[in-house]
Amino acid sequence: MAEEVKLFGKWASPFSRRIEVALKLKGVEYEFIEEDVFNKSPALLNYNPVHKKVPVLVHNGKPIAESLVIMEYIDETWKHNPILPVDPFEKAMARFWAKFIDDKFWAIWPAAKKAMISGGEKEREEGVEEAQQHLKVLETQLKEKKFFGGERLGFVEITASLIVCIVVAQGALGVEILTQDKFPALHELTQKFADDDVFKQCVPPREKHSAYFKALWGALAASK
Q1: What is the pTM of this model?
Q2: 144: number of Cβ within 10 Å
């Protein structure tokens, strides 16, 4: 019997994109079900009654929520083309840094929001500085790690693909946060995503992505 694999996600969500990349790296066929995050479907609410958000992977009727958890499930279910290291210590370190990246992203988000929707120049500059302080921690801690050296994307790299959103958003809104001169290692990683054949299949067209962020940040600014 053929396996049933469904992914409830949002095309612009970097968390949904993580799962798409992992599935494509594994060569797993799946159905992508686009969700309206402002009008969530009964199916999504049924499959993820705790957090009520995307992404949710449904494998043969069994739902798994939270992107890092889903990626580990994918790696353990489809053993070929592993995205996590085999060595227990290296696997533990990959999990640690993935969690570290997630935590830092949610610290960067309010600062980036402040930088991108503030009307005053001083407040905007403060937001840029706050966001860059968090990015400096990522740059310092991750540039010496070896997770980013392989030919294929791995668990930590897929997790770190969140930074693509910062690059696209800052380009769309004319704000410089993640710059090559200040963050060479992170900038190099964004280039690796841009060059990766699998990742390119999952990321939306740049114009569509930019338009989304302009609309998103415009709505946030209007609601202040």
Answers
A1: 0.91
A2: 7
